[in-house]
């Protein structure tokens, strides 16, 4: 599940975050230790130009809770490194060779370096939480387990075309929603605002699903701005996506035809384009947009009065941008 949709608003926080992320890799517990290639692989993928969506979201939640910046930065590093470690592992599973315009770690070195570098990165991520209540670390460990299970479910779905809409939702939550939920719940725990844990977790969860579903929508209908990947890549690569899941669940002819198509090794471009048009004709693009808007509405309901204050106003503006992008992608097809 790739991501091409909008991100939270950038801030000066990011420059300080980048400095602290560099320092995390220079920690004496890791710097200079052999084999150095593992840390080199961590740096290679961590500074390859990602969107920093998760650190920004932590900053915005933290600002809403008046969380000190040091705590925000440490939580942001945890969230970003958990995400980045998952990319190292995903590239091995997917046999990927490029990411963000650069060779993947497995392509530059080998699978062993990528897998073990990802493991080291998870350790560095959890070390950031050592000064906070143990519940925060426990939650981060639970998050990694959930993301791992979701990644395995995604692999299984690619190999077995019988996956359903609930299966897609489970994958999307584990791959995207759970980590954005952590950005909210961990911020609330560290701030001592236990009464807000569930609310901010729900906000992050629904933002994550809206983000992923918008990305899936853009893959089907395209966008006047370069989306950074080939249109209909999910159909072409047999990836689970929300519009495809909708079409499969709502039309038996589509489901049977797609199952037959995905059993073939020689998908033609004409077939891919035909099925993409079929998804739109079934009204699944419109229903996908409606689902994006529903998740954004739920996210804003969960954010509540914070949407009008420091940090929260940035989350609300990001949600508005994401809503506009989803609408634009459909209206401009």
From TrEMBL:
GO biological process: isoprenoid biosynthetic process
Coiled coil spans: none
Family the UniProt entry places it in: Belongs to the FPP/GGPP synthase family.
Signal peptide extent: none
Keywords: Magnesium, Metal-binding, Transferase
Record-linked InterPro entries: Isoprenoid_synthase_dom_sf, Polyprenyl_synt, Polyprenyl_synt_CS
Magnesium is among the record's keywords: yes
Classification via PROSITE patterns: POLYPRENYL_SYNTHASE_1, POLYPRENYL_SYNTHASE_2
Molecular function via GO: metal ion binding; prenyltransferase activity
Cofactor: Mg(2+)
Classification via Pfam families: polyprenyl_synt
Keyword Magnesium among record annotations: yes
Gene3D superfamilies recorded: Farnesyl Diphosphate Synthase
Record-given protein name: Polyprenyl synthetase family protein
Organism: Lujinxingia vulgaris
């Amino acid at each position: 599940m790739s991501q091409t949709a909008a991100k939270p608003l950038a801030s000066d926080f990011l420059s300080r975050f980048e400095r602290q992320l560099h320092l995390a890799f220079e920690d004496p517990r890791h710097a200079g230790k052999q084999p150095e290639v593992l840390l080199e692989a961590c740096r290679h993928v961590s500074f390859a130009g990602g969107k920093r969506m998760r650190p920004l979201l932590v900053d915005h939640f933290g600002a809403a809770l008046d969380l000190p910046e040091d705590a925000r930065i440490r939580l942001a590093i945890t969230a970003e490194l958990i995400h980045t470690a998952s990319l190292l592992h995903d590239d091995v599973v997917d046999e990927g060779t490029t990411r963000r315009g650069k060779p993947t770690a497995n392509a530059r070195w080998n699978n062993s370096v990528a897998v073990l570098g990802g493991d080291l990165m998870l350790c560095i991520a959890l070390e950031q939480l050592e000064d906070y209540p143990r519940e925060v670390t426990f939650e981060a460990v639970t998050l990694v387990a959930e993301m791992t299970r979701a990644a395995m479910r995604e692999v299984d779905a690619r190999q077995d075309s019988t996956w359903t809409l609930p299966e897609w939702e489970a994958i999307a939550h584990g791959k995207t929603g759970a980590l954005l939920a952590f950005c909210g719940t961990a911020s609330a725990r560290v701030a001592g605002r236990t009464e807000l844990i569930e609310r901010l977790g729900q906000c992050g969860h629904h933002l994550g699903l809206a983000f992923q579903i918008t990305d899936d929508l853009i893959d089907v209908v395209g966008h006047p701005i370069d989306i950074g990947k080939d249109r209909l890549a999910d159909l072409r690569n047999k990836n689970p996506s929300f519009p495809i899941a909708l079409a499969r669940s709502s039309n038996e002819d589509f489901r049977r035809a797609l199952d037959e198509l995905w059993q073939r090794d020689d998908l033609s471009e004409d077939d891919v384009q035909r099925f993409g048009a079929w998804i739109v004709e079934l009204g699944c693009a419109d229903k996908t947009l409606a689902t994006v808007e529903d998740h954004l509405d739920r996210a804003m309901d969960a954010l509540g009065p914070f949407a009008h204050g420091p940090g929260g106003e940035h989350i609300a503006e990001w949600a508005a941008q994401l809503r506009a992008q989803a609408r634009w992608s459909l209206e401009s097809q």
